[in-house]
Amino acid sequence: MTMLRVRVEVADVPGALAGLTAALAALRVDVATIDVLEIDGRTVVDEMLVRLPGGVTPQEVRDVLRMAGADVLSCGTAVLGSDAAVTAFELARSVLGGSAEARGAALARVAYAEVGAVVDVDEARTYPLAERAIADGVPASGPGGDGASPLAVRSGWVLWVAPQVPEPTMLAVVARPLNVRFSATEAARLRAFATLLDALERVER
Questions:
Q1: Whole-model pTM above 0.90?
Q2: Nearest 5 degrees, angle CA 80-CA 194-CA 203?
Q3: CA gap 70, 64 in Å, rounded
């Protein structure tokens, strides 16, 4: 049985999510979990983990969700991992004494991104999104491309976060080539992990 992780954006109105699950049920698709990732007052971004019965394709799932009124942001085979707490400990272990590449890979994994990096605050300030993250004290996300980040991703979306400390010495940045913006949940996870990295660096000094 195929498992898919599907991210959709729907209108923030009563019955919108029920309409999507009803459409999936008509295909005999089982919805295992639903996570609300972002709400902006007009729309909601939900991520669903679904089980496909034999004979149903991912494209059919995309089509039926679109017909039910959803904007399908992403749809791919789900990689089922371990317990969330175990995954968190594994990520923390991977950065202890690890290389810059290991830390970047861990950051990317936290935010479901393609690549990530830790960037010195002075270098980060040369990028407008990073400067906004520092000035506003909140994560800053925007379209990728030249001038958006030092990462080798020239399209898609970029997310910058500063650790939650009084005077950050570094920022974390991640990017993905898909035209799928980062959610508030992903930004919060990345910021928490960046704060952990900042604490580790201060201890190592």
A1: no
A2: 120
A3: 9
